């Protein structure tokens, strides 16, 4: 249920590796030629400038303003870390930028301001208005944040929201609606204890009142204790929540018999006894970040009837404003709302609450390694990776803005808008997420043939932490342990086998006997067969062959044919397979592309092309993707009769005859695989006329190899491969230069494959 906690060094490495930080600016127009540059900059750029000068509304037409949000902080209330300053807040603000982008395709400039003076901050944000389509204020401490936001809301004509106030209120409001429904309690009868009287807590409390909570049923605490009428230090935002109840001093007193605890303060201030003292079916939202008021484990261990939520992604019920801000701004920007009003916030809260009750898509279950998430005590609110959030919440917000009369650009075709929203979700990382999560469901034993390598060991660490595999390492025990220690890896009691160690003589003997039986009439004498087992790639393959492991990740290599020989000799091909082949997956923005054969067959015959295509189609289906196959060469449907053109034409004909349901088309040039307009116009019969290809089969190894290498080098595209197709059991060979991430991806692919063997 819970993921392994994040290591400090991993978090630091993540931020510092490669280009420091997490976001960058990328051009969205062509910039290749001198003409492009003349259009992008002087002289061409003067034309949109003049158009905007004539009518300022044109700024939305000719610039990025309409999709650009400023995430602005002064670093005074950064998560629960307090006033740590503007520079120290930057990783959080870049993080918000990243989330805006991946969840709602909104571009962000994060702006960290070196001021604690509200007037200066207000003035600064005001003068920034021309640049941005919206402003997300973040981690600005109370009470200053209230006035700052209020004044800016009045003065700016673009949507503005202090996320810690309203984002948090919306999400926790949705979670509260659902939690109360589950425990069958009425909000107006519930007793609330709120720890924190800052930006988030006050805003949540106000929304709870709107939802029906009674102010006399709320006890609020700040750093100095109970917010009570007798106190003289309360500011005007907190004062309305002051109670006149007597006999309650501490949080522990207040928690007795309470129905709901809301924590938006600091970590570790609630004890198990306090949780135990609450009313039946207690609702506990311990939302301080990164450390909640009470840990998830402690709270659920304290009593069985609790509904527990935190702000963290590694436990059930993540009540975090990430579920709101990307989609609220998306909806507000798309209708060009002049603000974000109460109606829009309430619409977002209700849409979220409703979404949690709908059946959960498979991709969400997979992402959380759950079989069947459904509305209940451990699922009161949708998960952040739910692809329906963008359509559900953004549409609700856009509609509400139109109802409020603050939408300057009302939407008329909701169906088209919904499709447009769905397209905004990047597809490039979905496949890998799916594969990794499928691997996590039933992790397999993966033997790493070349474990004396830091990159491999780092990948093993990640794969183990993520729960993808049970690793077995081959190599010199001392050497591996030294690398583990030097780099502070924590592999616990992972199994390490040295194939040269006399201690493993029995296993070697057993494997040698089996190998000799297999190869005794194929060039090996008894001595050689046994000796060969000391070679790690052979030993690893034999572990899988004998059932001592489930899949092999073999060494980082330059020579592919040599590296797959042990697997072929020990494990062999799948039934009916004449030749193995290799596939690469390129993770593009438009979704994954599968390339074959990139690795094994230099110049395949028609029959071999047919087999390569069949093996590739089968592998693609394993990832739950319907293959749409283009048979590539230099000719289109008979326009040339060269050797490769004829080969691909004949292979297509055979495949179409053999597999009438297969979407396979050819022969064709590569651009015909994607340009559906061109295909419809010229070759309307093509099976790829409506939707382009996702599988590309090449006429020979050169073409395939050159193509994927060009794409990955010039397109900055992440790839996985080569994935060996056609073996009886999964063995995958790492290319020299594979990164840690690529190795982890490969492990996940091998595990998924092993699951279906
Ligand atoms: N899960 C989520 O989505 C979100 C979580 N949060 C979390 O909520 C917390 C507060 O954030 P925010 O409102 O922006 O910050 P603020 O600085 O505006 O508010 C912090 C509040 O916590 C109070 N506080 C501090 N220590 C204690 C204590 N020991 N007992 C009771 N109250 C205490 C402060 O009291 P005083 O007023 O006396 O200083 C203040 O009222 C942070 O941990 C943040 O990470 C925030 C937004 C979203
Ligand atoms: C989630 C968030 O915004 C916070 O903890 O401050
Ligand atoms: Mg925040």
UniProtKB/TrEMBL annotation:
Q: Can you give the residue ranges of the Malic enzyme NAD-binding domain? A: 165-402
Reported EC number(s) for this entry are: 1.1.1.40
The membrane-spanning stretches of this chain are none
Q: Which SUPFAM superfamilies match?
A: Aminoacid dehydrogenase-like, N-terminal domain, Isocitrate/Isopropylmalate dehydrogenase-like, NAD(P)-binding Rossmann-fold domains
Pfam families, alphabetized: malic (PF00390), Malic_M (PF03949), PTA_PTB (PF01515)
Q: InterPro entries attached here? A: Aminoacid_DH-like_N_sf (IPR046346), Malate_Decarboxylase (IPR051674), Malic_N_dom (IPR012301), Malic_N_dom_sf (IPR037062), Malic_NAD-bd (IPR012302), Malic_NAD-bd_bact_type (IPR045213), ME_PTA (IPR012188), NAD(P)-bd_dom_sf (IPR036291)
User: Looking at the record's lineage, which domain of life comes first?
Assistant: Bacteria
- CDD domains xref list: NAD_bind_2_malic_enz
Query: What are the protein's GO molecular function terms?
Result: malate dehydrogenase (decarboxylating) (NADP+) activity
Q: Which UniProt keywords apply?
A: Multifunctional enzyme, Oxidoreductase
Q: Which residues form the Malic enzyme N-terminal domain?
A: 20-153
The family assignment reads: In the C-terminal section; belongs to the phosphate acetyltransferase and butyryltransferase family. In the N-terminal section; belongs to the malic enzymes family.
**What's the protein here called?**
NADP-dependent malic enzyme
Q: Which organism is it from?
A: Flectobacillus rivi
High-level lineage: Bacteria, Pseudomonadati, Bacteroidota, Cytophagia, Cytophagales
